[in-house]
Amino acid sequence: MSSDDEDEDFKLAVALSLQENSSAAPPVSVARHETVDLTSDTEDEDEDDDLRRAVALSLQESEPVVRTDNVVREVSLPSQHDTTAGDARKDSTKPPAAISESKASTSTTGPVGIMGLDRKAMEQERLARLGKRKREPSPDRPSKQIGRTPSSETSSSFDNLQYSRGTVKRTFATKYPRTDDITIDEVLQASSVNIAVISSFMWDTEWVYKKLDPTKVKQIWIMNAKDQDVQERWVREMKETGVPNLKIHFPPMDGMIHSMHSKFMLLFGKAKLRFVVPTANMTQIDWGEVANDWQPGVMENSVFLIDLPRRSDEAIGSRMELPRFGQELVYFLEQQKVGQNVIEGVLKFDFSQTGHLAFVHAIGSAHNIDSHPTGLPGLTQAIQDLQLDNVKDIELDYAASSLGAINDTFLQRIYLAACGEPFTTDSNSSHVRDHIRIYFPTNDTVEKSIGGRDCGGIISLTRQHYNATTFPKECLRDYDSTRRGMLSHNKLLFARGRKKDGKPFAWVYIGSANVSESAWGGQKVLKSGRMGSLNVRNWECGVVVAVPDSRMKGVVPSKDTTIPPMSVFEGTVEVPFVCPGQSYQGREPWFFRTG
Predict the structure, then answer these.
(1) Is 489 among the catalytic positions?
(2) Binding of substrate: at which residues (predicted)?
(3) What's residue 554's pLDDT?
């Protein structure tokens, strides 16, 4: 920082201090909510803003504020689904962190915002850290398009990256043996993160703050709120809390769009960008943690993550030069309107090791048949890009936490997309039920789980959908976790089969999309004989990971079929449920309950 900047900081501090006893003085803004700058993601660059914010906040020390201590604080505006059973859900109009399940206590010890943070304490900690640093003049920032001098710390070598080609993990579960699982702390690696862009349908805000301290990590939260007035109120109340380095963002939610259901993290560090796609929300329960020291975890999820090194030239790359995985990710971020700084931040990293992966999205809106592929057409394109099409036989096992108004036409569209084939006016849905199994818990499974009925609220299926004559009940299998007693919030589509040339294949989709047209897009054949538009009601995203050819070569099919067994996924993804699952055999599924 230059000496002029330091002088300006001092002048600002003096000016603000003079307002302390002035009744006519206007209120001081407690936080600056500008676009988070991702073009330079080091911790030291905005210390001038930190100082201004700290001085402004210090003026509010004498204001008594009611403090709310919550057991669980989940920020969510469930519209009609998570993702589909929301005919039973109603939009909440409460602001972030006003949604709670517990008792409140009052305190007047210091200013605490509605997001549950002690702002004074946070800024004092920030000032203490800033004071320990030796402030030296810094050179002017280089142009965004000009690469900086490469160094050993920012080389594009993949050697020192933990997950340079990506991996799929189960989420950690308290009190259960550690297997190939991962904790939220192991995912975040908070000490090495400078900037975090996180998308989630539900939020446990106080828990997130403990995992990613906003005084140390700049953050953008992509959240779910349908109505414009609710979005504006959330933004306004977020500003009033004075939480530093935090911006909330809402993607387009107009028209038919009902849910921002996508889940991902962009974790920017000095040496790498960690890209994460979990099936979990940003809540304690979804990541297997509990609020006490005696209870086991109650909910399991899965997570894909990959570490991307900085480009060797440290320049901002071109989207068109990216492999398809990177292109689709950037396209999705553009459609969510997260801002050019985020896009440029992503383009600083090397996607060259993602050719074996596919990023699949569902962009909320109506799309004509000539649009950029998204939803099920996007899955079709992904399977083609990975050369997993030209399928002769295929079997699908889909684990989901929410089921919509499923019928044979929708099942066939999933089946065709998994084969890399488009849905057309000539498509036939005969026998599709014989090749798809849907893993969803029975009522008994939820009742007997560790968390019991109280933890079944995010597992959704309505009686109306289930009792429809078109609902494929025979496709349902009980989701019985291999970690006995756990419920599942997974969205996993396992595909196994043989191509027309006899070559076996297998892949898995990990993401936010449940088994519903809201998630994947509804599309019908019009009376005119033409294909109608693809109507997507949710924002969703996921990743397709293929089982490596080296693994497929060792597959020995059973005597009764040429389809590879589920064991083919060993080494690629841990199948979290008992397979083959039990059919319902007269048992009822777990039905969504209100209240």
Answers:
(1) yes
(2) 263, 491
(3) 77
